[in-house]
Amino acid sequence: MKITDVRVRKMTKEGKLKAVVSITMDDEFVVHDIKVIEGEKGFFIAMPSKKTLDGEYRDIAHPINSGTRERIQSIILEKFEEAMNEEEQDN
């Protein structure tokens, strides 16, 4: 599986949510609503989720293993940093 496209939508409001991302895999499958969140130890991603009847959130799409999660997170955060740098250069 290869990530062939990453689209970053930066959030303008203050808060921990910094961007919402869509990734395309193998030019054939897309996952929307991956969140880039600023935590105490830096940025991380949260996979798309929905609220259950008992009020908890469950991922509706997620990697099966930690290696894949790390690879997806690395690519997304790299593209997020590029988008942030482009915004700074424009100002």
N-to-C order of helices and strands: EEEEEEH
CA-to-CA gap between the ends?
A: 37 Å
Strand content bin: 35-45%
Mean pLDDT: 93
Low-confidence stretches: none
Q: Describe the global form.
A: globular
Enumerate how many helices there are, as a single number. 1
Helix content: 25-40%
Radius of gyration: 14 Å
Order of the strands making up the biggest sheet: 1-2-3-4
What's this entry about, in short?
Helix content is 27%, strand content 43%. It has 1 helix and 6 strands; from the N terminus they run E-E-E-E-E-E-H.
Secondary structure layout plus pairing:
Blueprint: E1 3-10, E2 17-25, E3 29-39, E4 42-46, E5 49-51, E6 57-59, H1 66-90
Antiparallel strand pairs: 1-2, 2-3, 3-4, 5-6
Describe the structure.
The N and C termini lie far apart (37 Å). 27% of the residues lie in helices and 43% in strands. With 91 residues, the protein is an alpha+beta fold. The chain is built from one helix and six strands.
Keywords:
single chain; alpha+beta; four-stranded antiparallel beta sheet; 1 helix; 6 strands; 43% strand
